[in-house]
Design brief:
The structure holds two protein chains of two kinds. By secondary structure, chain A is an alpha+beta fold. Helix content of chain A is about 45%, strand content about 15%. Chain A has a four-stranded antiparallel beta sheet. In chain B, helix 4 runs antiparallel to helix 5, helix 4 packs antiparallel against helix 9 and helix 4 packs across helix 16. The chains are: A alpha+beta, B mainly alpha.
Chain lengths: ~180, ~475
């Protein structure tokens, strides 16, 4: 038996409700959640669409950045004073005094965390990405698009189902320069 | 009779919809078009005249005068014993204060889910970034040999020198750098979906610009999830950073054992002062945006000025409390030099400034902002916002150059006479406005997706015979 080549269908819905219903219907037709993607102009939660939880590494990357930032702060606060050939003694303060150290550690920990959070969005979303991609500009006008990957043989069945569930248009998705 | 009731009910609903942007939704495409039109509208001759004038002020007063300062030295500025800290540092503190508005509106109000924030978070975030640019410029002006600024950076070098991390001035570098980078990233993240919208609707060089800035954003579930998570982390994490920045700025003064400066309350007092000037500036910026940009009357309404006005009133009260607390303890302490300083503030040659500060920061806001009608009137709140900013600039002037005039060595007492720093300070103000005007033509000032999200969450609900506004939590 030869497997038919998969195709990508792009269905555009005017509202959230029919899009959520269509996703449920597609699932009943045997389309796995991994073969669907929803594109929208506002953040629509997984729960609203009845989709599985979306994994994100952003909090972990942020935590990693915070640890690195803390390390950099530790280096500056505790190690750099010893690198200086003529150690600076400020009044009667200890050589690596507590309160100023807290300030340095706090600032660099936060800087590390926020920089890595920002970087995390880039890494997780594969930004910047200027290659051709499957997209319809109507989503930024408030429409909701469902991108479905299905075997070529099922194209008509899926397309008809999407239309029946209220899709305004269903077409073959083609990668284009945004 | 029942018809009348029905009529009255309908007009109440209409009134609510007219009043609240969140209850007056338009199709997303239409809102996109409105924001794009406001950005792409051909500038009027007035715009170009103001733009040209500001550009001249920036080139001449900021950069040319800076060149003169570098060529001739700090003697061009009025700083000399005992006033080594003059207007450059007044402006640094002032601009950092302005920058607090963005974080307050965008982060604190986001965390507390204050819905009225939605249409003007970006306008406030831009103030943060552009305000910090002016603060950075002002510090560099104060530095004098600005080309050696990199000596502040901790890096292994031939001179085997490391910055002294015990000094509040080094903490300043860390805090302001952290805040500038964080607030710029926080401005950029929620901007991505809006630039993607602009990308889908533009041509030519704008298309290329938005294409680059949108980074390939499509609005997939994954992209939104990463973005939402990042924005939540930013909203929570940037708040302590904001607090730390102005606290550390206050320590530049409070850590010194000078009369008038050595106060444990300076940290929160500075933060409240920063919020005071920041909110005042936000009100002015919003009124200007509403008054000058196309379609902005739909997005920015009386309810927004009313909400900002309430915040301004509360912050004004908090500022008055901290001011009095600081004053009271210093006055009660009875230290000879502090008494001299307090007397100098009120009855010295610049005593008028001390009284003007209290009038602008307390009397004017309290006299106007208690009234809901006046609060919701753009020109009235603009006047209050401007007064607060004048008052807060005076406050910083009193804390810095006026306060260092009086010290424990009376033979050094000398009143600060500013020189080149006055035009240079005006130059930073011009640059701030110029950057804002340019940004209003280049990036969508209204976060349309946030407005639409808010409109989806709001509805009118009937409780008995009363129609009330109801908000759902979508996240």
């Amino acid at each position: 038996m030869t497997e038919s080549k998969p195709v990508d269908l792009l269905a555009v819905f005017s509202d959230l409700e029919p899009a959520a219903n269509a996703i449920e219907h597609l699932r009943s037709l045997g389309v796995h959640d991994d073969c669907m993607n929803v594109i929208s102009g506002i953040p629509v939660t997984e729960a609203m669409l009845g989709r599985p939880h979306q994994w994100t590494n952003v909090p972990r990357i942020a935590m990693g950045g915070a640890i690195l930032g803390f390390g950099a702060g530790f280096f500056l606060a505790f190690i750099s004073p010893y690198i200086y050939p003529y150690p600076i003694q400020v009044s009667t303060q200890a050589f690596t005094p507590g309160p100023p150290t807290v300030v340095v550690l706090f600032e660099l920990t936060m800087l590390g965390m926020l920089l890595s959070t920002f970087l995390g969005v880039f890494l997780d979303s594969f930004f910047p990405n200027y290659r051709p991609m499957k997209y319809v500009a109507e989503v930024s006008d408030g429409k909701i698009a469902i991108l479905v990957e299905c075997p070529h043989a099922d194209e008509k069945k899926i397309s008809d189902a999407l239309k029946k569930m209220g899709a305004e248009s269903v077409k073959l998705a083609e990668a284009q320069h945004l | 009779m029942s018809d009348n009731k029905h009529h009255a009910g309908r007009s109440h609903e209409e009134h609510l919809r007219e009043k609240h942007l969140m209850l007056d939704p338009l199709p997303r495409g239409q809102m996109n078009d409105m924001v794009m039109e406001s950005m792409l509208a051909k500038p009027t001759w007035k715009f170009w005249v103001i733009f040209g004038f500001l550009a001249f002020v920036v080139v001449y007063f900021l950069f040319y005068k800076w060149g003169v300062l570098i060529a001739k030295g700090q003697g061009e500025a009025g700083v000399m014993r005992p006033d080594y800290w003059g207007i450059f540092l007044v402006n640094t503190v002032f601009w950092i204060g302005i920058s607090h508005a963005g974080t307050f509106i965008s982060a604190i109000l986001r965390v507390f889910r204050a819905e009225f924030r939605r249409p003007f978070t970006r306008a406030a975030e831009l103030m943060t970034t552009f305000g910090l640019v002016q603060a950075g410029f002002s510090i560099f002006m104060h530095m004098g040999r600005v080309w050696l600024a990199y000596w502040l950076m901790p890096y292994p070098n031939q001179r085997l020198l490391w910055p002294n991390l015990h000094s509040p001035l080094t903490w300043d570098l860390l805090a302001i750098t952290t805040y500038l980078l964080s607030s710029t990233m926080y401005l950029f993240l929620p901007l991505i979906p809006d630039v993607a919208m602009a990308r889908d609707r533009s041509t030519g060089w704008r298309k290329n610009l938005y294409k680059i800035l949108a980074l390939g954003f499509r609005g997939t579930e994954g992209e939104w999830t990463h973005l939402r998570n990042a924005m939540n982390i930013f909203a929570f994490a940037i708040i302590p950073v904001m607090f730390s920045v102005h606290t550390i700025v206050s320590w530049d003064f409070a850590a010194a054992t000078r009369p008038g400066w050595n106060s444990t309350i300076f940290g929160p007092y500075f933060i409240v002062g920063a919020l005071h000037s920041g909110m005042g500036a936000a009100a002015v910026v919003l009124a200007v945006i509403r008054g000058t940009m196309k379609h902005m009357k739909y997005f920015v309404r009386g309810e927004h000025f009313d909400a900002i006005g309430k915040l301004m009133l509360i912050i004004s009260m908090a500022w008055a409390y901290f001011f009095f607390n600081d004053y009271m303890v210093q006055w009660y302490g009875g230290d000879k030099w502090t008494q001299q300083l307090l007397h100098f503030h009120e009855a010295g040659p610049l005593g008028w400034m001390w009284f003007a500060m209290l009038i602008c920061n307390v009397a004017i806001p309290w006299a106007i902002l208690w009234n809901p009608k006046w609060r919701a009137t753009p020109w009235a709140i603009t006047a209050v916002g401007l007064a607060i900013n004048v008052g807060m600039w005076f406050e910083r002037y009193i804390i810095i150059p006026i306060s260092v005039t009086i010290n424990r060595m009376p033979f050094t007492w000398r009143l600060y006479q500013p020189g080149i720093e006055v035009p240079m300070g005006i130059g930073t103000l011009a640059l701030f406005i110029l950057l804002y005007m340019s940004a209003s033509k280049l990036i969508p000032l209204i976060p349309v997706w946030e407005v639409q999200e808010g409109q989806m969450a709001h509805e009118l609900k009937k409780f008995g015979r009363e129609t009330v506004v109801s908000v759902s939590e979508l996240e």
